[in-house]
C-alpha cells in the first residue's frame, strides 16, 4: 500500500478497543464508544453494523451512528427494506465479497469493483443509494453463518473516495472489532469471560481430548491443563469437563463462524 499510518493514526486505532472496553452501556451490537471512535478514525457521513439473511431477504440487526445521532434495530419486520432491495444487494459485488471469497481480512471499497460509470449502472446504487446521495462505500466483513452477512460499513455522501489509509486502518482494527462484538454477546448471554488459552482447552475438551492429549496439543503440562480447568469451573459454576464444554462452547461464535 502506498499510504501508511501516522503516529496519530496509531493512537486513534488503540482508542477504538480501549474506549469500547470501558463502555458498559448495554447494546445488542457493539459499545457506542466504539462507534464514536470509528467515526473519528475514518471520516464519513455515517457508519453502521448490519447483519442480514441473504437467502430470505431479511435484516436481522443494524446499529448505526451519524452526525445526528445513533440507533439500533433488532430486525426489519416492522420496517422492511423496499421491494427489490435484497435482490439488488445480492448482485452488488462489494457487499457480498467476503461471503463469495471467504476473504474476511480485506476491506473493500466500491471503487475496487466499479468505475463511476459502472457504479451508476448497478441496480442497488441506481435504485436505492443514489436517492440518498451516497457516493462512496467501504465494507469490513466479519464472520457470519453461511448466506448471512455481517459487516462494518462506512458511507460518504459526496467528496473524495475512501483512501488506502482508511482501508489500512480498518483492516488493522477489524479483528478487535470482532472480539468486542463477541464480548458483548457473551455478556448479554451471561457467558463468563475466559482467557484465550482457557477457550483452547475447552474446545479440545468438547472434541473429546483427554488432559494428556490437550497438554500435548498445546505444548503445556497436564498440571497446567488441570489448572486451566479449575479456573473454568470457578467461572462457570460447574464441576465437570463435559458440563463446562456443553455450557460454554456453543456461545463461542468466533470458532463456529471463523473464516
Provide the fold topology.
Blueprint: H1 7-22, H2 32-41, E1 46-53, E2 58-66, E3 69-73, H3 85-90, H4 93-101, E4 108-109, H5 116-121, H6 123-132, E5 136-141, E6 148-156, H7 164-188, H8 196-206, H9 211-218, H10 222-236, H11 241-248, H12 253-256
Antiparallel strand pairs: 1-2, 1-6, 2-3, 4-5, 5-6
Question: What attributes characterize this protein structure?
Answer:
259 residues; Beta-Lactamase; 2 domains; 6-stranded antiparallel sheet; 12 helices; 6 strands; elongated; disordered C terminus
Question: What is the mean predicted local confidence, pLDDT?
Answer: 89
Number of strands: 6
Terminal residue distance: 24 Å
Helix content: 40-55%
Main CATH class of the largest domain: Alpha Beta
The CATH superfamily label of the largest domain reads GAF domain
What's the domain count? 2
The unreliable regions are 253-259
User: What share of the residues does DSSP label as strand, in percent?
Assistant: 15-25%
Biggest sheet character: 6 strands, antiparallel
Overall 3D shape: elongated
Strand adjacency order, main sheet: 3-2-1-6-5-4
CATH architecture of the largest domain: 2-Layer Sandwich
Sum this structure up briefly.
With 259 residues, this protein is an alpha+beta fold.
Notes on the protein architecture:
By secondary structure, this protein is α+β, with helices and mostly antiparallel strands. Helix content is 49%, strand content 15%. The protein has helices at residues 7-22, 32-41, 85-90, 93-101, 116-121, 123-132, 164-188, 196-206, 211-218, 222-236, 241-248, 253-256, and strands at residues 46-53, 58-66, 69-73, 108-109, 136-141, 148-156. A hairpin with a 2-residue loop joins strand 2 (58-66) and strand 3 (69-73). The radius of gyration is 21 Å and the shape is elongated. The relative contact order is 0.13.
Amino acid at each position: 500500500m502506498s499510504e501508511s499510518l501516522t503516529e496519530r493514526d496509531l493512537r486513534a486505532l488503540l482508542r477504538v478497543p480501549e474506549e469500547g472496553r470501558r463502555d458498559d452501556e448495554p447494546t445488542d451490537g457493539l459499545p457506542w464508544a466504539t462507534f464514536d471512535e470509528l467515526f473519528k478514525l475514518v471520516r464519513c457521513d455515517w457508519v453502521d453494523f448490519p447483519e442480514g439473511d441473504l437467502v430470505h431477504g431479511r435484516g436481522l440487526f443494524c446499529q448505526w451512528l451519524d452526525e445526528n445521532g445513533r440507533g439500533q434495530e433488532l430486525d426489519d419486520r416492522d420496517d422492511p427494506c423496499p421491494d427489490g432491495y435484497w435482490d439488488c444487494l445480492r448482485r452488488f459485488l462489494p457487499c457480498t465479497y467476503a461471503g463469495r471469497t471467504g476473504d474476511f481480512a480485506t476491506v473493500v471499497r466500491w471503487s475496487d469493483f466499479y468505475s463511476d460509470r459502472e457504479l451508476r449502472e448497478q441496480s442497488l446504487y441506481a435504485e436505492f443509494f443514489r436517492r440518498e446521495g451516497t457516493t462512496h462505500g467501504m465494507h469490513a466483513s466479519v464472520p457470519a453463518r453461511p448466506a448471512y452477512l455481517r459487516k462494518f460499513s462506512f458511507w460518504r455522501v459526496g467528496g473524495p473516495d475512501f483512501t488506502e489509509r482508511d482501508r489500512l486502518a480498518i483492516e488493522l482494527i477489524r479483528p478487535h472489532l470482532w472480539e468486542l462484538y463477541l464480548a458483548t454477546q457473551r455478556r448479554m448471554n451471561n457467558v463468563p469471560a475466559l482467557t484465550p488459552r482457557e477457550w483452547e482447552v475447552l474446545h479440545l475438551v468438547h472434541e473429546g481430548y483427554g488432559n494428556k492429549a490437550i497438554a500435548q496439543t498445546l505444548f503445556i503440562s497436564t498440571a497446567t491443563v488441570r489448572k486451566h480447568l479449575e479456573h473454568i469451573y470457578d467461572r462457570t459454576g460447574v464441576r465437570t469437563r463435559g458440563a463446562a464444554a456443553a455450557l460454554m462452547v456453543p456461545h463461542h461464535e468466533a470458532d463456529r463462524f471463523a473464516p
